């Protein structure tokens, strides 16, 4: 094998250096949704939030009392994209890097939790006990 193809092959299978990217669409079809609403990234992977409609955020919150997510997001290793309006003809995107494999619970800060309470939720690394379905139910009930 030539050195260049060996290096290319080594890099291609080296997830610590080059993580996978997960694309999550926010507000597709004008809905109060993250699509997909459940992802399972590893440490070093990235998540790109693409904001398609309205004026949303992707902000980490708590599993049990999700709405509204607090500015800055709930940590450790939480995040907050801030408000990203897709109302002026652009579809902004924000990429975050995953720092651990703990569950992270994501919703939208807009309208004092009104978007969140529609069930607008994304589960990052949910578990068998703490599921996206239960997180969404908690958001709707909060
Ligand atoms: C987006 O929402 C935030 C929070 O409600 C607001 O402060 C901001 O003005 C909005 N941006 C646009 C362009 O509507």
TrEMBL record:
Residues 1-19 form the signal peptide. Gene3D superfamilies: Cupredoxins - blue copper proteins (2.60.40.420). InterPro entries: Cupredoxin, Ser-rich/MCO-related. This is Cupredoxin. Keywords: Signal. PANTHER family: EXTRACELLULAR SERINE-RICH PROTEIN, SERINE-RICH PROTEIN, PUTATIVE-RELATED-RELATED. Coiled coil: none annotated.
């Amino acid at each position: 094998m030539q050195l260049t193809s060996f290096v290319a092959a080594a890099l291609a299978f080296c997830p610590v250096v080059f993580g996978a990217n997960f694309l999550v669409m926010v507000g597709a079809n004008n809905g109060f949704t993250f699509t997909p609403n459940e992802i399972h990234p590893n440490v070093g992977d990235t998540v790109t939030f693409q904001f398609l409609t309205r004026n949303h955020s992707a902000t980490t919150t708590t599993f049990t009392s999700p709405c509204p997510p607090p500015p800055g997001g709930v940590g450790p290793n939480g995040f907050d994209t801030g408000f990203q309006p897709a109302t002026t003809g652009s579809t902004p995107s924000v990429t975050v890097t995953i720092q651990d494999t703990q569950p992270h619970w994501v919703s939208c800060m807009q309208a004092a939790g009104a978007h969140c309470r529609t069930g607008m939720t994304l589960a990052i690394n949910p578990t068998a006990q703490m599921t996206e379905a239960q997180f969404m139910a908690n958001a709707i009930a909060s």
